[in-house]
Amino acid sequence: MTPDLRQLRYFVAVAEERHFGRAARRLSMTQPPLSQAIRALEDALGVELFARTKRTVELTAVGADLLPEVRKLLAAAETLRPLAQSLARGEAGALALAFVSTADYGLLPQLLREFAVRHPRVRLNLTEATSDVQVEELVAGRIDAGLIIAPLPPRHAAALTYLPVMREPLVAALPASSVRHRGRGEPPDWADEPVSLADLGQLPLVIFPRRLAPGFYDIITGCYGAAGLTPRIGQEAIQMQTIVSLVSAGMGVALVPQSLRNLRRTGVVYRPLAERAPLVETGLVWRTADVSPVLAGFIDIVRAVQGHGVPRAGAARRPARAKDTREHGA
């Protein structure tokens, strides 16, 4: 039989009073049931805790060594109720959040700062992953929520809820070495704003692989198609940081969300597009039937940002595995 908290409290009272009668009065009970409870505790532990005589009660060596440990257990038990209440209010606990790399340069820091202010006792477990990986991880129950790039795979619409948070235009990321005055036989003048896709059309395009980010890939290639151009894919990469680094190295140009301007990399300049730039939507997705108090608090913060940030994409709608690695990009 495992000792219960009541027996442990009785043990401490008798140990401190060194007298069953006084301990019983302290506990507002009679002496016989107290004596029976202490004997049951000793039987459960398989040791004697008290050396008894007709006049005295003294702790045995085992009882004396056990007393401070029992006090620690009781003290820990006293914290359970306030801890449970904090968990129920979303003031404590953990949140496993995944995010696309594009969110790391605009939306995510804003959300994390506000969340840390409101929920300082919550432990955040952050993972960078592509949107498709995040959806699979959500369905498998390995993360609580994710910041993804729309659109979402429709096959998971029944299980997930999607909240659009922000929409931002694409801008061109260009090699700084190409920013020069136009002259005969020279590259286009990237220093002129804005830049036209017609000037970019024949240059290699650095882009995410379609198999990993089909929605984002299609937005970029569709931008070229709307201008009557066919993009010439030069390099593929699965992280925004890598894409920008390849641009910096002169490997091509890229179309990236406007927030990537915050990723300042030597050798790269950002320019708006002359054509009407398509908007990239980032939103929060979570399991509809599994909203913990901590997650509910995070969703509240996201809704507040949604109402005061860049143009909204509309009301929350349904539909969307995050490998714990930063090798999975947007």
The CATH class of one domain is identified as Alpha Beta
Determine the number of helices (DSSP H or I, runs of at least 4 residues): 11
Strand-residue proportion = 15-25%
Low-confidence sequence ranges: 181-187, 309-329
Shape: rod-shaped
Strand-and-helix sequence, N→C? HHHEEHHEHEHEEHEHEHEEEH
* Named CATH architecture of one domain: 3-Layer(aba) Sandwich
Radius of gyration: 31 Å
Number of strands: 11
As a percent range, the share of helical residues equals 25-40%
Biggest sheet overview: 7 strands, mixed
How would you classify the helix and strand content by structural class?
A: alpha/beta
Q: What is the third-level CATH name, the topology of one domain? A: D-Maltodextrin-Binding Protein, domain 2
Mean pLDDT: 84
Spell out the key features of this protein:
single chain; 330 residues; alpha/beta; Arc Repressor Mutant, subunit A; D-Maltodextrin-Binding Protein, domain 2; seven-stranded mixed beta sheet; two-stranded antiparallel sheet; 38% helix; rod-shaped; disordered C terminus
